[in-house]
Amino acid sequence: MTQQEALFAYCLRRGDDNLILSHRLSEWCGHGPQLEEDIALTNRALDLIGQARNYLQYAGTVEGKQRSEDDLAYLRAERQFMNVKLVEMPNGDYAHTIARCFLYDAWHLPLQQALMNSADEQLAAIAAKAVKEITYQLKTSGDWMIRFGDGTEESHRRAQAALDELWTYTGELFETDEVDAVLVKAGIVPEMGPIKAAFDAKVDAVLNEATLKRPADGFMMTGGRQGKHTEHLGFMLAEMQYLQRAYPGATW
Predict the structure, then answer these.
(1) How many Å from the N-terminal Cα to the C-terminal Cα in the chain?
(2) Nearest 5°: CA angle at 17, between 19 and 38?
(3) What is the value of pTM for the model shown?
(4) 120: phi > 0 → left, psi -120 to 50 → alpha, else beta; which?
């Protein structure tokens, strides 16, 4: 694998993670438990779609086939998406959505902080912009986890149930393969060891304050980075890509 091929795949992964989670969170628009949180989730989705655009635009440039971020978002089939399975899972209740956001944020922030030191100037610039947004997102999702866990008996039960269900999807966040090996060697992306350590520290600190139990590590879902997804992604893409599929080349 060449460095160019690895960089293209890496940008797709980063862009797809953010794109798919953004669409999931957009499904809350108009359905939040209260107006302030409804707007907060929508703003989080907008931050993620902006980050996705930056990565997919750069992926198109690196690929050199004149594909735009719209082409990559709307004209790829399910097996061509490289996002982790965590982000494609249905939202569930509000506690489930927040737990998913917290786990993603706790991984996303240290990764982007490390990418700020990338030898690739474009990746470093994308990360520097994203870090400002993710810092706030992690604080918010962490605060909500504490509120749920240390709140009522029902909020604690729901938060714990969400963690127990979602934990099996977290292992994939730290998987590495040839793509990572090529880019780590070139100083373009960080090794995942320190990212995992930062994730563990943040998760443990928040769950301890929230009086929630960290699920035991065991079987972990995998395959998303290789385009092997759950049935949920296909249904989501059918909705997300409908306009472009029905009216090819449509513009506003």
Answers:
(1) 38
(2) 55
(3) 0.95
(4) beta
Q: Hey, CA dihedral for 35, 139, 195, 95, is it positive or negative?
A: negative
Q: What pLDDT, in 10s, does the model give residues 4-55?
A: 999 999 999 999 999 999 999 999 887 767 767 778 888 999 999 999 999 9
What are the structural domains of the chain?
Answer: 3-214+222-246 (1.20.1260.10)
Closest CA to 61 of 111, 128, 11: 11
DSSP 3-state of 191: coil
DSSP element (H, E) containing 72:
helix 69-74
Instruction: Name the token pair of 176.
Output: 């590495």
Query: What string of DSSP letters covers 118-186?
Result: -SSHHHHHHHHHHHHHHHHHHHHHHHHHHHHHTS-HHHHHHHHHHHHHHGGGTGGGG---HHHHHHHHT
Handedness of CA 63, 7, 168, 149 (dihedral sign): negative
Query: Is the alpha carbon torsion for 203, 209, 210, 211 positive or negative?
Result: positive
User: In sequence order, what are the residues at sequence separation of 6 or more whose Cβ sits closer than 8 angstroms to the Cβ of residue 50?
Assistant: 133
Burial of 138 (0-12, 13-18, 19+ CB in 10 A): buried
Q: Are 114 and 120 in contact (CB under 8 A)?
A: no
Q: Are 19 and 49 in contact (CB under 8 A)?
A: yes
Question: d(Cα 192, Cα 208) in Å, to the nearest integer?
Answer: 24
The residue type of 115 is L
Distance CA 2, CA 234 (A): 30
